[in-house]
Amino acid sequence: MSKTILIYGGSSLISKELINIYYQKNYNFIIFCRKKQLMLNDLLNLKLDSGKFKIFETDLVDLQKNLELISNIEQNIDGVIWISGYTGNPEIEFKNVEEASNNIKINFLNPVLIINNLLPKIIDNGEGFLAVMCSVAGLRGRAKNIFYGSSKSGLITYLSGLRQKFQGKLNILTIIPGYMSTNTFKESAPNFLITSPKKVANIIVKAINKKKEIIYINFFWRIIMFLIKNIPEKIFKKLKF
Fold first, then answer.
1. Model's pTM, two decimal places?
2. pLDDT for residue 190
3. Given CA atoms 130, 2, 25, 46 in this order, what sign does their dihedral have?
């Protein structure tokens, strides 16, 4: 019997790699993305059977539409992988309430409320899973990404609470990716800190299979963030990075 996986943020490069992997495992798909036609074009280019896919077009800012779409999902889901996020611009967000609000909605408030509505649809026999892409930015506050970082920190804390609440019933995976070759960091960060979408997807799938709870995509980030988190606040606040 085919299993079903839901991927939120289906048009990202990482999502496409995940789709390839789970397609080979004969999964059916529920995809949430911003542009349905582009997603259909991607399936055509990848030579995948579109009949195995249900695609919902939506935007993370529109909470009500997301909740309505979720209410229309009738079948049980074996796993949910959440990829979507938005870095934003802290300088603009400090001056513009709407921009700050959008960052918080996209990275924390709406994901939490959407995931909460998805949870009853995920099988709870100990084999179902929820995997959520978070960020190293959520591990300590920085001036350069205050709204993004604090929202990701809230998301990490939320997942920790879910892990305790659903222990033995649902596997919850927190993904800490660091820099990936899908964003602007690829132009300024050292190569050893950057991971390709294909490698990210493979690491995520292996972690899900092993029922991991928290993973760093790149081991170097575990070391870096251990050091950063242990810098005394009086010193850390004076640093400019």
1. 0.91
2. 61
3. negative
SS3 (DSSP) at 157: helix
The residue among 34, 80, 31 whose CA lies nearest residue 52 is 31
Evaluated on CA atoms 222, 223, 228, 229, the torsion sign reads positive
Radius of gyration for the chain, computed over Cα atoms and rounded to the nearest angstrom: 18
3-state secondary structure 63-91: HHHHHHHHHCCCCCECEEEECCCCCCCHH
**Per-residue confidence band for 191, with pLDDT thresholds at 50, 70 and 90:** low
pLDDT at 238 over 60: yes
The pLDDT of residue 6 is: 97
Per-residue pLDDT averaged across 90-114, rounded? Answer: 93
Distance separating alpha carbons of residues 137 and 225, to the nearest angstrom: 9
Number of other CB atoms surrounding residue 91 within 10 Å: 11
| Mean pLDDT (whole number) for 85-113 | 92
Cβ atoms of residues 170 and 198 within 8 Å = no
Helix (H, G, I), strand (E, B) or coil at 34: coil
Backbone conformation region of residue 78, classed left if phi is above 0, alpha if psi is from -120 to 50, else beta:
alpha
User: Which residue type is seen at 77?
Assistant: I
- The two counts, helices (H) then strands (E), for the chain are 10, 9
Report the 10 Å Cβ neighbour count for 53: 18
For a pLDDT cut of 70, what percent of the chain falls above it?
Answer: 94
H or E element in which residue 41 lies: helix 36-45
- Residue 120: other Cβ atoms inside 10 A: 10
Helices (H), 77-145: 90-95, 97-104, 110-118
The H or E element that residue 155 is part of is helix 146-165
